[in-house]
Amino acid sequence: MNAHTSFLRRALTVTLATALSLGSLAAFAQTLQKVKSAGELRIGVAPGDPWYYRDPVADKWTGLGVLLGEQVAKEMGVKMTPVETTWGNSVAALQSGQIDAMFVLDATEERKKALDFPANPLLWYAQGVLTKDGLVAKNWADLDKPEVRIGVALGTATDRDLTVRLPKAKIERFTNTDETVAAFMSGRVDAIGFYHPALVIAYSKIRKGKVVVPQPVVALSTSVGIRREADTAFRDQLNTIIGKLYTSGQTQALYAQYLKTKGVDPATVPGVMKETLGQ
């Protein structure tokens, strides 16, 4: 076999392999078509209130992520089906086709390497504090005092952020969120820091203190993780729908609806729209 023939065979082999690979991808990747054909949108659900919560009484999943999933499915003309997964396994579940979407999944640079995300934000959450009664926290500077004790979960993004943001305050670190909340309940700290939706859920359980998003607001957007595909029809339609839900105020309305099931007056806590955070 001469060099020229060998080269041609290798080139043909690569070309065929590439064609087969692209063909397989195209066959697997038509998410919107599969959703329409099956008549259902499968969303991943994993413990993490207020996004996902399994009601032990009704034995069903609820939460803002579920409510948003239902609305998106309705707009697509299909039903929403929850599929249990874990946060750590959500990327693999999407890639393998076990689920079609994972709501409230942050579009980090690392995840963008494996998944696709719509351009419009799903909602916003902010660095917040649950403060004891009487503690002023309109601005972060109000908390940056030696006499103010703030509890955080060790090693979290909040721990890192508040350590830098509040160098004069006394930062108390606890093993996990439950221990942090317990320290607040017992009066060992004057406030606890975390992203504000989780603090609202903590408040709904202990009925103590006030959830505040101090100025300047430190806000992050979250999104919907989906499979990366050559055909962007599913992503494009999803982007349009979540943009419509957000700008119309329906996303915030669904959040308020869910908080009422927790016995929380939504007018008394920060919402999930960037435009209103810190007001």
TrEMBL record:
Family matches, as SUPFAM superfamilies? Periplasmic binding protein-like II
Residues forming the Solute-binding protein family 3/N-terminal domain are 40-262
InterPro entries in the cross-refs: Solute-binding_3/MltF_N (IPR001638)
Full protein name: Polar amino acid transport system substrate-binding protein
Matching SMART domains, A to Z?
Answer: PBPb
Record Pfam families: SBP_bac_3
Keyword terms of this UniProt record: Signal
- Identify the domain of life: Bacteria
Q: Which residue positions does the secretion signal occupy?
A: 1-29
Per the record's keyword annotation, is Signal included, yes or no? yes
